[in-house]
Amino acid sequence: MNRNTPITEIKGVGQKAQALYTKLGITTVGELLAHYPRDYETFDLPVSVSGAEPGEICAVEGKVLGIPNQKKIRNLTILNVNVADASGGMQLTFFNMPFLKKTLKPGGCYVFRGRVQTRGGAKIMEQPKIYSPEEYQRQCGQLWPRYALTKGLTNQAVQKAVRQALSFYEFEEEYYSPQFLEKEHLLPVGEALCSVHFPENMDLLQAARKRLVFDEFFGFLLTLQKNKELTQELENSYPMLETADTVRFLERLPFSLTNAQKKVWAELREDMAGEHCMNRLIQGDVGSGKTILAVLALLMCAANGCQGALMAPTEVLAVQHYETVCKYTRDFQLIFKPVLLVGSMTASQKREAYEKIALGEANLIVGTHALIQEKVVYKKLALVVTDEQHRFGVRQREMLAEKGECGNGPAGKKHPHILVMSATPIPRTLAIILYGDLQISVIDELPANRLPIKNCVVNTSYRPKAYSFIAKEIAAGRQAYVICPQVEEGELDNVENVVDYAEKLRTMLAPSIQIAYLHGRMTASDKNRIMEEFAGHNIDVLVSTTVIEVGINVPNATVMMVENAERFGLAQLHQLRGRVGRGEHQSYCIFVSSNEKKETMERLDILNRSNDGFRIASEDLRRRGPGELFGVRQSGEFAFQIGDIYADAGVLKAAAEAVDSLLAVDPDLVLEEHAKIRQHFAAAENSVDFRSI
Ligand code: ADP
Ligand code: MG
Predict the structure, then answer these.
(1) Any alpha helices (H) in 409-520, and if so which ranges?
(2) What is the architecture, at CATH level 2, of domain 454-610?
(3) Region 518-538: what's the mean pLDDT?
(4) In angstroms, rounded to a whole number, what is the distance separating the alpha carbons of residues 145 and 371?
(5) Phi and psi at residue 489, in whole multiples of 5°?
(6) How far apart are CA 44 and CA 111, in angstroms?
(7) 632 C-alpha vs ligand 2 centroid, how far in Å?
(8) Which of 210-219, 313-322, 622-631 has the lowest mean pLDDT?
(9) Whose CA is nearest to atom 5 of ligand 1?
(10) Residue 456 near residue 577 (C-beta atoms within 8 A)
(11) Is 509 within 8 Å of 598 (Cβ atoms)?
């Protein structure tokens, strides 16, 4: 078996299982092995009965007292067994397992593992797993992988398939030299792959993870360097001059730019007028006012007789931007002739848009990545702005360049200016690495009219208070968001989901309060409609997954309540919080945690104490160790499969240095000793290259 072998070659994976794996995006053995565990189950040493905490999964070692008691209720056989150790007793209940009556001998000693509950003040376990003490001893210290699943596919089945795949897999030859592995303290690639699935202990797991993370970063940075080479010296194909349009627009705006915005605007003007093609990133915390800078640059572009495009990662955000520019165009009589281009438009709407773009009747095109698809032909595309979570790889840049002068262009490609906007708070040292191919501008100041958001971190018993608070804000004319984690059916238990939650809220809040929900599995046009209704204040409370985390601007919304806050990374929670506090009203953020572990509360408390995205990200980085990484969702823009830019910052820096020294010696990887690296990462390039969400 190799990475391209279809998974049906694995014994036990038939047609039915194949369909389930396809749902998870797995069709080949390579993809199965890259389906890294979500987290690991560990078997801790047994605790005493008196020390077993209700709510926790634990193992107790005890003696069976007396003969198990069996009852039959309709089709259900219920077996109750009393066990005890020196510290106390506990009742165990088993359903439909009558044979246990014979297995569990009075006086016999066993280890029982399950979730501890209380019934009438006494501790119980239902359906615990049973081990002999020796058997249990062997399990201890091992880590068992838990995979992301889909309904119908069990964890056990995936474990089995992975185990088989690993035993028949022809591992790729190691592509780094032994000296390199030693210098970077990396496991060989095959070993890493085995150990990430079935680690013998925590140390091996961390080592395996490190190797895979290193490779992921290494591949990403190699591509980035290529990108950088390509773009650095590009001559300015579309030199532009500032005109009265932007000056007048700024004069008429109801607010004046912050000093930070002014500084960045000057940088943009200089870039677009300068010798080289612009390749710039604007990094600014949520709410720092990036959109207006994009509008200014696009206006300068239009005033110079060119076309500009504004691209967003989701339709919802694209539509919002389109409406913002339409409003600016009307209110300030700007020279924009905007069109919208998103996937959910009808074929004839799209055709109409294509035509306007090709003829140059539109000078501002707003949309999703539909904007760079082949069908779109531009008249004179001179500036592309991307907002949040999309970067261009080498190929996309080439594609854009081809579009630059399509139709009537002279020979020789012209490259449009590129402006990327991001709210992902990344400490400067990492930003230089991750955005190595771009110039960086930072907006390090929020508009002055903002009141700091008031935060609280609470447990679920606070909900009634939160609901009455939301009702009060709504009565005052404001709006609220409630966020629940997105859940693939059957994947996570004990997690709130938007559909049921919205239903529940309807019973908790007055009927006059309009409640709707939003999630990623809805159609694009449904999502757009709900967002429009929310922006237009026909909806008071929006129950949503994190699909709204990116860029949405509804300044009238003042409450952000996040359920299961413990499941999100801090940087992501900060993004969510950024959806409120965008207007003149006092805003509030309620983080509800479903567990009260000390570390969770402390971690969330960081949000309580700081409103500064950069500080939060660095705290996140300081606190999270690789052991805790599995299961915490990562920030979207750099959605690496296994690496986490914050927690693996050290590995990221090491990979960056390694790429630099490699390319310093052999920029095109032509030396014989680098052939394997070139081959491996050429294949990987297609998959890691600048993903959007
Ligand atoms: P982000 O940087 O998160 O994309 P936006 O560009 O959406 O933020 O801006 C958030 C809000 O702040 C918008 O309603 C915008 O009109 C407003 N805004 C932007 N700049 C200023 C400013 N200098 N003074 C006051 N309000 C501003
Ligand atoms: Mg924005």
Answers:
(1) 428-434, 463-475, 498-508
(2) 3-Layer(aba) Sandwich (3.40)
(3) 88
(4) 41
(5) -50, 135
(6) 12
(7) 24
(8) 622-631
(9) 289
(10) no
(11) no
User: Domain 44-140 carries which CATH code?
Assistant: 2.40.50.140
Locate 579 and state its tokens.
């959806």
- Domain(s) labelled CATH 3.40.50.300 in the chain stretch across 230-443, 454-610
Which sign does the torsion angle of CA 244, 277, 320, 469 carry?
negative
The answer to which of 62-71, 286-295, 599-608 has the lowest mean pLDDT is: 599-608
The answer to whether 127 and 3 have CB atoms below 8 angstroms apart is no
Q: Judge whether 113 and 58 are in contact, CB under 8 Å.
A: yes
pLDDT tens column, 355-392: 999 999 999 999 988 887 778 899 999 999 988 765 66
Output DSSP code: residue 173: P
- Residue 374: Cβ within 10 Å count: 8
Instruction: Indicate the top mutation candidate among 291, 298, 585 to test ligand 1's pocket, ranked by most ligand atoms within 8 A of CB.
Output: 291
Whether this prediction's pTM lies above 0.85 is answered by no
What is the fold, at CATH topology level, of the domain defined by 230-443?
Rossmann fold (3.40.50)
Kindly state if the Cβ of 555 falls inside 6 Å of ligand 1. Answer: yes
Q: Pseudo-torsion of CA 670, 675, 679, 684, nearest 10°?
A: -80
Q: How large a percentage of the chain has pLDDT more than 90?
A: 55
Tokens of 470: 């939301």
Terminal Cα-to-Cα distance of the chain (whole angstroms):
31
**Buried b / exposed e along 280-303 (16+ C-beta atoms within 10 A):** bbbbbbbbbbbbbbbbbbbbbbbb
| Contact present, 630 and 199 (Cβ < 8 Å) | no
Query: What pLDDT, on the 0 to 100 scale, is given for residue 316?
Result: 84
Choice from 264, 292, 327 to test ligand 1 binding pocket (greatest atom count within 8 A of CB): 292
User: Given CA atoms 374, 379, 382, 385 in this order, what sign does their dihedral have?
Assistant: negative
Closest CA to 349 of 528, 357, 337, 530: 357
Higher per-residue confidence, 426 vs 672: 672
For residue 489, what pLDDT is reported?
46
